[in-house]
Structure formats: C-alpha cells, structure tokens
Amino acid sequence: MLLQKKSASFVGHCAGYIASGFGYGRAKKNVELSSMLDVGKWPVFALLPPEELRLIRQACVFGSAANEAFYVTVNDEVFALGTNCSGCLGLGDLQSTIEPRRIDILCGKKIVSLSYGTGPHVAIATADGEVFAWGHNGYSQLGNGTTNHGLTPALVSTNLLSKRVTEVACGSHHTIALTTDGEVYAWGYNNSGQVGSGSTANQPTPRRVSSCLQNKVVVNIACGQLCTMAVLDNGEIYGWGYNCNGQLGLGNNGNQQTPCRIAALQGVNIVQVACGYAHTLALTDEGMVYAWGANSYGQLGTGNKSNQALPTLINTDKERLVEVAACHTSHTSAAKTQSGQVVMWGQCRGQAVVSPHLTHFGSTDDVFACFATPAVTWHLLSVDGDDYLTVAQSLKKEFDSPEISDLKFLVDGKCIHVHKALLKIRCEHFRALLNEMEEETIEVHQFSYLVYRAFLEYLYTDTINLPPEDAIGLLDLATFYRETRLKRLCQETIKRGISEENAITLLSAAVKYEARDLEEFCFKFCINHLTAVTQTQAFADMDHDLLKNFISKASRYGAFKN
User: Fold this and answer.
1) Nearest CA to 315 among 325, 326, 329, 304?
2) Helix (H, G, I), strand (E, B) or coil at 133
3) Whole-angstrom Cα distance, residue 231 to residue 509?
4) Which of these, 76, 264, 271, 394, is most buried using a 10 Å CB contact count?
C-alpha cells in the first residue's frame, strides 16, 4: 500500500503516553537507557546480591570516604547503608550498617531530588513538593530551628508548607530549595553569606532569598562548599557567599551576603550551573561551558592552574555540550556532548588534568565513580537493571525488530518494522488507517526515512533523538498529523540545538509550521546574537517577507539603537 498525507479526519492526538522510569533529580528529562549507570561501580554496593542490585532504580553515594549510600527500588522502597556519621542514614540511630536497612518514612514518597552536605546532612524533595532533611545539624542546616542532629527524616515545614519544592542543593552545612514558582529558600550555616540573607548570622529555618531575586524566576540551583548559585529563566546567573577563590565569577574575591548577577556573562544565556568545592561551571544555550573560581587542580579546564575570578570560556575541542557536572566535595569536573561523549578534567585520582580529556565513559556519573576523590555521586542517579525491563523499556527494545512485528513501512527503500496494535493504541491516524487495510507493507513517500523512523520510534518511546535541523522535518510531520505533544518535543529539541549558524533556518521553520513559542525563542536568540546571525549565509538567503518582518520586529525591540 502507498501512504500519502491523509485528510484531517485521519489525523489526531496521541491516544496515550507510555510511562517512563525514574528520572534524574535535576534537570534531566527522558533519560536514555544507555546513559544510566551501573551502580556496581561504587564499592559501597559491592556486597549487595545481584537480585537486589537489579531492583535498584535510584541511588546516591556520599560521605567523606564515599562510604554511605541510599537507594530506591522499583517498588519505591528506600534503603540506606554505610557508616552513618551523624545519623545521616536516617535510620533512627547512630549504628553503622554493612547491610541495607529500610527507611520506612521515605518509602512511597517518590524522591525527585536529593543532595547532601559534608557533616553530612541530607535533604530530599519528593514528587509532592515536600522537603525532608536529616543528619548533622550543628548549624541548623536541617531547617528545624534547632541545632540537634536529626536521626530520622523530618519534614521541613517553616515557610515551605504552601510551596512545592522541585529541587534541593546542599553546601557543606547549608541547604537551599527551589520551588515551582521559581523562588529560592535557604537555611543553615552562613559565615560567608551563603544563605543570602544580607548578614552572616546562621539561618535556623527556611528563608526566602529575595534581594535582587525578587520578582525573578529561578530555574536551576547549585552549591559549592560555602557559596550558592542560581540560574534564572532569562539565562542570567547569580551567586552569593564565599568568594575568596573567585567562585562567584564577579571579578573580585570579596564575599557576598546577597545575590549578585555575574555581569561578565551579560548577553550569554546560561541553562545549567554546577559547583565544585570552590569552582563553578556554567553551560550555555549554545552548548559552551564557562568556568571560574579555584584552579589548583586544573578543575577549570583552562590548561593551567591559575584561579579565575571571571568566567572563562573552556575549549573542549568537541561538539555542543549538553551537561556539566561537579560536586562540592571534590575538585573534579566533567561534561557530556550531544552525541554522548564524556570529557573530564581537574583532580582525577590524584592527578591534575588541566584541560578537558576525552574518556570512554557513557555518563558523567562514571567520571565521579572512577576518578573523583571521594568517589561520591554528583546528583541523584537513575540506575538501569540488568534484566528487568519496565513496560516502556520493553517497547523501546521491540521497536524496528522484525522478530514479532506484523507491519513494516518502506521509506526511501528502507524497512521499519512495527506492531499494528501499538500504532493503533498510540495514534488516531494509524487507528483509522489500519482499520481500513490488511496490507503488511506500507510505502511512504511524503517524508524521509530519518524523519519517519523518528516518528514511529516516538510512538514506542515518547522521546525523540534527532539533531535540530532534522527535527524540523519531524515538526512538519507533527504539524500535519496534529500530534501536539510530538510537536512540542520537536520545538524543545530545536531550542536545545540552536546556534548562530542555524538560528535563521530554525526561525523560518518555526514561522512556516506556526510554532509560536519556538518562533519567539528563535527570534530572541537572533536578537541576542544579532551581529553574528546577520553575517551567516542563512541570513543572506532569508525569504524576503520573513526578512521584512524580522527587521520590523527587531526595530520594535530596539535592536538597531546605538
């Protein structure tokens, strides 16, 4: 059968979404199975039997010698093991345990973010937006108004009961929390102003960090040992607290008791920040990395060991980066490229690696497991079992597998093997089409093999894996088939991949396919990088009407004023 574009009656929204497994505690959506970590790389888990390891879906390793750990099973049970310093395992006592013990109060809570201090103390955020904290509390870092150590997880309630927290971060002895409203709350040790209250008095309960963050929306947070960083929705980045190594990026070494914008990054759109012991990494929307702060181990990746009080662009000699990683307990840095390559630099098992070094790892987590000192996790891990597959993982595995498929698409002379039942469940277009036909092969000429395969794979996985330029073709398909969610995913992919060279091409596509949000994003990117964008070939070849509208709109934004 030959398949062309069908009439509107055959197209529609997806009928349902496949549930995916646990995600990272920050920032990281649609985690691919290939990037999930084998928890066996951490020695603290070495005595767990294989049947227990296969049940683990989330994990965190912490402590002064990486000798304490939590993990969450597929049944959402939470376990702890290790030395239990200051009661940081949350088990109700100070006893160390070489065998896992269950933390009953956290079972079923669905942890979405976890962080730890050096006391250590531990803080988590749950799917319901609650914050629990326990462990060392000598500086009120548990936020309960006392300095008594907490032996069991306790709800942090002051000023947070009406808020939904999505992310937590800990410094050595202070804690910060980010809410769905983009507000930041902080409490605990404040000798250098790291709580952002305008003083150096310790903060016993959560207090909103306001000052110049008032009426602004924060989207990402991180803590160094004694400093705090926050990224805003407009790409600005602020820092406060200890600054003797220049880790706030302000061009000086003075501590700051309230948030200060990093003026040196004016016009640069930051999307993620990560803090080491006394250095900071920031990822831009163009996939570049800036670093500043302490550099005695080469952790800035500048090729030398000189501290930097201002953001310095790091040359990785690689493609676009999509993730940066650092931990306040170490001087190690890592980053991941768009194609999945991982680079590392800084203190790596005692060596000072002063420039980004390409590794064979598939995850930044592997860098910290194998090379950081101590070998702790830099964020909440998602762990894939050896032989246990969720429904979503099983479907992903069977996509384009001829073994049990009952339908194949022929596109550009290549076959894509699928299952009629799944296509009918997932997409109204195929439900209508396949109910009218009995053929086992469908030829497609309207779309390329790459685009159509990505579309079918999306129906199996709920994710797309295409570079931004190819995502334009998938956006065309999604627009015609009226696949609203797929269209949104395409727009997100295009946003992540925008650059000065392709910005005009992506803007043109957004206008063509009436993707208003994407159009506005691309336009603002072009305005923020106007000089470079106007020198590209794409700008020279720009459609006359689009160029006319672009210049008119840019004028209204004041882009051509002196």
Assistant:
1) 304
2) strand
3) 29
4) 271
Pairwise CA distance, residues 532 & 525, whole Å: 11
Cis, bond preceding 120 (omega within 30 deg of 0): yes
Q: Which one-letter amino acid corresponds to residue 132?
A: F
Q: Quick one: tokens of 120?
A: 């250590």
At 288 the three-state DSSP class reads coil
Give per-residue pLDDT as tens, 101-114: 999 999 999 999 99
Residue with tokens 């000429």: 445
Would you tell me how many other CB atoms lie within 10 Å of the CB of residue 208?
Answer: 18
Tens digits of per-residue pLDDT, 247-306?
999 999 999 999 999 999 999 999 999 999 999 999 999 999 999 999 999 999 999 999
Q: Which residue has the tokens 């310095």?
A: 312
β-strands 279-284, 270-275 pairing: antiparallel
> How far does Cα 322 stand from its chain's mean position?
9
Q: Do 180 and 170 form a contact (C-beta atoms < 8 A)?
A: no
On whether the CB atoms of residues 296 and 318 are closer than 8 A, the answer is no
Residue of 85, 99, 81, 89 whose CA lies nearest to 122 = 89
Are 374 and 66 in contact by the 8 Å Cβ rule? The answer is yes
Cβ partners under 8 Å of residue 19, min gap 6: 390, 391, 392
